[in-house]
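Field: COMPLEX_INPUT
Field: COMPONENT_COUNT = two
Field: RESIDUE_TOTAL = 1191
Field: MODE = joint
Values follow.
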Amino acid sequence: MPRINSPAELEEFRKDVISKRGPNKPCIAVCTGTGCLALGAANVVAAFKEEIKKQGLETKVEVRETGCPGFCERGPLIVIYPEEISYLQVQPGDAEEIVSQTIFAKKVIDRLLYVDPITGEKIVHESEIPFYKNQMRLLIGNNIKIDPKSIDDYLAVGGYSALVKALCQVTPEQVVELVKNSGLRGRGGAGFPTGLKWEFARKSPDETKYMIVNADEGDPGAFMDRALLEGNPFSVLEGLTIGAYAIGAHEGYVYVRQEYPLAVENVTLAIKQAEAYGFLGKNILGSGFDFTVTVHRGAGAFVCGEETALLASLEGKPGEPRARPPYPAVKGLFGKPTNINNVETWSNIPLILNKGPEYFASIGTEGSKGTKIFSLVGKVNNTGLVEVPMGITLRDIIYEVGGGIPGGKKFKAVQTGGPSGGCITEEYLDIEVDFDELRKVGAIMGSGGMIVMDEDTCMVDVAKYFLKFLSLESCGKCSPCREGIRQMLKILTRISEGKGRESDIGLLMELAESTRDASLCALGGTAPNPVLATLKYFRHEYEDHILHKRCQAGVCEELYKAKCTNACPIGQDVPGYLSLVAEGRYEEAISLIYQTNPLPGVCGRVCTHPCTDVCLRAETDEPLNIPKIKRFAADMAKRKGYTVKLEKGKAKEEKIAVIGGGPGGLAAAYSLALMGYRPTIIEELPQLGGMLRYGIPPYRLPREILDQEIDFIVNVGVEVKTNTRVGRDITLGQLQKEYDAIFVAVGAHKSLPIRVPGEDLPGVKGGAEFLREVELGIAPHPGKRVAVIGGGDVAMDIARTCRRMGAEVTIAYRRERKDMPASEEEIADAIAENIELKELVAPKSIRRANSGLALEMDVCELRDFDRSGRRRPVPIEGAVITREYDTIFSAIGQTSDLDFAESLETKGDTIAVDRHRLVTNLPGVFAGGDAVIGPARIVDALAHGKKAAVEIDRLLALKSGRDPYAESLEKIKVTMTLPEVVTEQPMAEIPKLSPEERIKDFTAEVELGFDEETAKKECGRCLRCDVSWMAARDKSMAVAG
Amino acid sequence: MDNGKIDKIIDKYPSDSSSLIQVLLEIQSENRWLPKEALAKVSERLKVPLNRIRHITTFYKAFSVVPKGRHEIHVCTGTACHVRGAKRVLGAVQDATGLKPGLTGEDFRFSLETVNCVGCCALGPVMVIDGEHHGKLAPAKSKDVLKNYE
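Field: COMPLEX_OUTPUT
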């Protein structure tokens, strides 16, 4: 290797390196960062090398093993130069084809390209892939271009020209000035101005000073520094050397955690190469400046990221922090002035020297300049490293770069700054990301970890997770940190186990504040942040855990039996009845179902089954078809004439009115009747059932099933007053006088207007109103041509109903099919019935036409992401289509008609209640269901009904001085054994009537139900999450060593 | 581990207390645990009292003062892996090996540890066995992976 003795020699050598390569020489760059290696990149490299050898191309084609470009999700990644063709998820078997097709024949291989999930378009060039396109890759952009084990590669992309500039063109003071002017702030977390830090160290009067690269990236979930040190160690060393020159230090250390073996290897090799070339060592580039660097491996302690702890560790001591001041700039390593910066800070230095501080300061916000690398991980589609300018919004990072949340789940929060940081909710996704803005919302930038969490993440668990981490990592030196964290963890643990106390939230706050204020170092000082942030934004989750022993996300395992049961608002014992059906114990199965659900035949048909969404069997093959098994059990019970034995409480005197005969009202009346009350349901329409009857068409829910199940409820002991509208036939005030308690469950029966000109024309109708009229037998025929505007289940119901009335139907939806709120199965069924689905059209106006109504629609395209996490449809200028229809239905949502009860306090369009007890502002008046939460699921209404009954009883019992009703359920013994072997077997599909058959008859049920054999077999697929394998496991623990 | 090897390692570093952690890390990676005799040797050569060495070996997570199994399993419980279900993967591994984190089986086939983050969050949940990464794990898959290590 040559030693380079002057800037002129360096330029000479650089020219030589570049000319030897030739700009058109094909090069296959394979990412060999830790992520891609874990996915088999080493075998891909070997396969390319072998293929090239086989074809005798060793001198003509280069295979380069590079650092990490960031798109780890799709690794192993390769880029082919000079064309910059990007292939993803490349396997060794692809090597031959790539060499012969792409390198030789210059043909792009389609199947290895990135496919845009929105347009379906295949993207050839790396820079055009949305993940990269929306970034600003000043620091990690070179990673895929260079082999981190080759200093020549670094020189070829202009490496070490910043060092030349520093050493030979400016004074050390000027370097400090340049960095100060750039506005660079430390990337390690606190964001202290780097130039200022350097100035302190520079001014410290001491012969010996030390420089340190802090690469102890201990924040779990962050790997920016790993990628930089692994992928481009030279840029870090170059920055460090420039810093040493500016400060006047001659010795430096790279403190890197040993969990990053590849980073250790690459930086060690880079130092050797830099020494050989004369970029490190004595008389660097002939400038007379000396500087040496040593690698020091951290031995696994998070606290060592704290600078004083890091210094102790470097001295060979336990990594315990000490109080500051004196700051390291005055008294650091071995008592000498020391300057410590984070990896990413160092790698910004060459950039500032090369492009000038003005350029650097032109990027970013007022207070935070340049770019920042984030490790975007967790529940996000494009996981990986992203480098973005300061000031970008969180929404852009998560959606434009990250591609949104996988599996259509709902975004919940993003945690920035790791264990010392905080979480940010949907509400704040539009803030501009920089050091100061993040702090304002209770989070911190930290080193750049960004963990996206969706609805399946429990925030109590997140706080517990970080506190557990911190309690293990607290060095123990000062008691506020050691004990404070331990006590907070203890409280969080008991909350997550269902043993929380009502006073716990206050106690947590108190502990958090004292730990924050009294700890010695930043570890303790920031440790309460996860608790404080989750308490600030997710207090309701804490309350649910403490008061209701419920973990909605299904994470805190002690609080539930199985995920399906937990996801069900009424807590159906799903594994229990599945097991009973599997054994043919149908009578017990239906009894078990009835213990929590008075409408099994209804739910088995039309429940939106949140249980299947969380079924763990999906990890093996597909989830279980839980609702259809419930339907089977209910049908079986009817066929065999099983009756459910009910135990009723002692008769009670108080009078209770239930307003609304829908699922919420029915559930409340049922529970109240079982308690011994004789509630009265007051219903406006002629029959009970609410939305079940007047919203769901009979081909989905046969009326005979609905009637039977309602009759059963009424027969338990419920009075019914139909054709009685509160507000018209009787006032709420009168009811309050007559009854001891009232439950309002009026549903949401009023269609929202579409808000376009012409919506008042005859022939433009509300969808919900239409479905009601159909059921009442008073609906006018919609005509031959029908349009339904909307994409939810109601839109499907209207479309399919009209289809059965002989109409040609078009569903007009402003986004795409995948965005439709209706269940995919419903959409598929509608399309099978020859209903047209028109995507990406939004109504513009309606006017009278020659033969009916002309509906003018804007053709839309999807642009940026809106608050729902879906892309916003925006009309394309000038693209308007017009079609004629006889009837146009609006089905874009519903609201409650609350005119009857002006005295009830509302929140928007819903009734305001205390969510724990469902009480309204009026004494003795409770409310629930759609009228409280907006159009929701049937099971939510059932859950509210039951809850209201319990609360009403508690209130009345208190008034009359008796104990509240204690529910006693019959113990049904379920066999508790795990399936012995699990073999792949897809979910059993429900047989259906053919589309031709089913559109002939309005009442013909589309779904036919399982036969006995299929039902039993499907039940056999259940993995029995309810059987505790933990107990069995703990017994067989081996202890050794 | 014989004394010659230990001497060789110590010789690579400046013979003072600041080299302690680096020397111990190298012995750990060579021998996979730190026997008492090795620590005594280090104490003598670097002139660091044994009690301080004990302090170091228990303070830092990388060191083990008990023998390790033939295969070292590190289940990543970093935040990214955690929100993607690392807990259940760890449960499955515990189930399959009969070990709790920090323990080694009586047959010395496996040692089980958790690790805070191995920096391949995109592949979470991740488990590292003898330095080899296994990503995108589900509980059942992680059990299958273990079968390849005898």
